[in-house]
Design brief:
Keywords: Membrane, Transmembrane, Transmembrane helix. It comes from Demequina litoralis. This is DUF4386 family protein. The chain crosses the membrane at residues 49-67, 79-102, 122-146, 158-182. With 209 residues, the chain is mainly alpha-helical. It has 8 helices and no strands. Helix 7 runs antiparallel to helix 8 (174-193).
Length: 209
């Protein structure tokens, strides 16, 4: 399998895994809902941990995805550097999000009965921001750098601009879903249209139309 095609599949996986994990992990965030918070604190938490693991896997997939978006894998390539940062932030964010269910499982009633619900909300919100919005901001910058390449089809560059701006503004949350949609669309184009480049120790060549 070529580096470019597998990188496209990795970007698709990142988009789908992140969307699914963010939607199904149940991490508190958004509007304050006391009923939902009590349900989260009192739940079994196995599902939350499983989806956090899916989110971590998606974040790790970015490391391979940016290989197909970058010109070289070194400090001179901002795309590669931003991609590595996005992976690190994403993994850290999902561990923060998983911290609440792990704490509740390990500490039991001593903690669940002592932590105020607003604190649970605040910690969950931090986890969502770091796991979803942090990588989105960094990869949004990557998308804008990709859009500056004149050797790509116009629609790919336009989509990259939209996806990049939505990634940078991901804390608005509605734009985060458009950004993840861009990741899937861009990954699909990479997987089906990019030129085949044999895997090896060489630097990855830029994507060509």
């Amino acid at each position: 399998m070529s580096i470019h095609r597998s990188a496209g599949l990795a970007l698709i996986f990142y988009g789908i895994a992140t969307l699914a994990a963010a939607a199904l992990a149940g991490t508190p965030g958004g509007d304050y809902d006391e009923t939902a918070l009590r349900g989260f604190v009192g739940s079994g938490h196995a599902a939350s941990l499983a989806w956090a693991a899916v989110g971590i896997a998606g974040a790790l997939a970015l490391l391979h995805a940016v290989r197909g978006l970058s010109v070289g894998r070194d400090a001179h390539d901002p795309v590669w550097g931003l991609g590595i940062a996005a992976v690190a932030v994403g993994v850290a964010g999902w561990f923060i999000a998983a911290g609440l269910p792990v704490t509740f499982l390990e500490a039991g009633d001593h903690v669940t009965s002592a932590i105020p619900l607003p604190v649970v909300q605040a910690i969950g919100e931090i986890g969502v921001l770091v796991s979803l919005c942090g990588p989105a901001l960094l990869m949004g910058a990557v998308a804008l750098l990709v859009a500056a390449r004149r050797d790509l089809p116009r629609w790919v560059r336009v989509a990259a601009v939209v996806g990049g701006l939505c990634g940078i503004t991901a804390p608005l949350f509605l734009t985060a879903f458009v950004y993840l949609l861009w990741a899937v669309v861009m990954g699909t184009w990479m997987a089906t249209r990019a030129a085949a480049v044999p895997a090896g120790p060489r630097r990855t060549a830029p994507i060509t139309a």
